[in-house]
Amino acid sequence: MTSAADSNPRIYVACLAAYNNGYLHGAWIDADQDVDEIRDEIAAMLARSPIEHAEEYAIHDYEGFEGVAISEYAGIDTVARMGAFIAEHGALGAGLLEQFSGDMGQAESTLEDCYHGQFASLADYMEELTTQSVTILEALRYYVDWDAMARDAEMSGDLFTIETAHGEVHVFSNR
Description:
By secondary structure, the protein is an alpha+beta fold.
């Protein structure tokens, strides 16, 4: 799993009044901080705008969100929640957000309630799960097709995986 130190979700917030008048004015803001702190940094950026009384902003860029898309007008509450989730869980958190189309509630509850752990493959998980619950004679162990069991579990919708690196698969049950 990617550590929190490997992920630093940030957004580039631009002043729309300046942008519409031909100026590039904005600031990179850490997205994994408190919502009020992000809003304070946006307000400070707008106060420094070359256009007086600037009030509107948009997210013109982002980084460190591990492939999760952030819309130009995403709510700061959502961005902060996603930023904190990805900062804490890295590629696994981003994979869950992609799995559930950015639904933070679903991603958080799935990680909390349906996570079975990290394995080299889904077949390895199936082998561990089976051998913990059923005694398989050593002479028969080599005839069990763990890959087929894994494929069946995934195709049936019982399990899904998020691969965060080669040989690093996170296994989840579907509800």
